[in-house]
Design a protein that fits this description.
Length: about 190
């Protein structure tokens, strides 16, 4: 079973307003990510959200970080989702990558290395660690890292078996993997 996690709990400081509720082509970023995961092969999708936004996700399964890891970044969102919803694997997609659709998700899940702890995407120049597939058994390791104050995704990925796949295997148009940090970028 594959469960999707939409990371929508960031502060959006550079963006100036919550990215989850920004729009592209009349659809909210969180909706685009949710549907990409669901239509891309996930059996269920969770929204990792800020507490003050919980009521803004319609009927979606929205959660907030466990109190002991609240505010500790994307690892906290992934950890909380893994602790609250058991699954064999988790496909992770940040809400601020609205160009990623079901095709890219489907290909990532299909290419995920079942022997790796995490399969993540990269371009020639840049890792895209949060568009990734995580083994469902990683929750305790993530929790231990967070308890030590280790919040960085890249250091965590370096501490486990991570397989990196070339983004061009998912889509030769690398612009779909763009992260939106400012309102005028979308």
């Amino acid at each position: 079973m594959t469960t999707g996690i939409v990371l929508a709990g960031g502060l959006s400081r550079r963006f100036g307003s919550p990215k989850a509720f920004a729009e592209r082509d009349g659809r909210l970023f969180w909706e685009l990510a949710h549907d990409a995961l669901l239509d891309g092969g996930c059996d269920h999708v969770i929204i990792s959200a800020r507490p003050e936004h919980l009521g803004r996700y319609g009927g979606a399964d929205a959660i907030t970080d466990h109190p002991e890891v609240a505010g500790a970044g994307p690892l906290a969102g992934i950890f909380t989702a893994m602790k609250l919803r058991q699954s064999d694997e988790f496909a992770v997609l940040p809400c601020d990558m609205p160009g990623i659709g079901p095709m890219e998700v489907r290909k990532l899940i299909a290419l995920a290395d079942e022997d790796a702890d995490v399969t993540a995407v990269r371009t020639k120049d840049q890792p895209i660690p949060l568009f990734s597939v995580w083994n469902g058994a990683l929750a305790d390791l993530i929790g231990e890292a967070l308890a030590r104050g280790e919040r960085g995704v890249m250091p965590f990925l370096a501490s486990v078996e991570t397989e990196w796949i070339d983004a061009r295997e998912l889509n030769p148009d690398l612009s779909v993997f763009s992260n939106m940090n400012r309102p005028n970028e979308h």
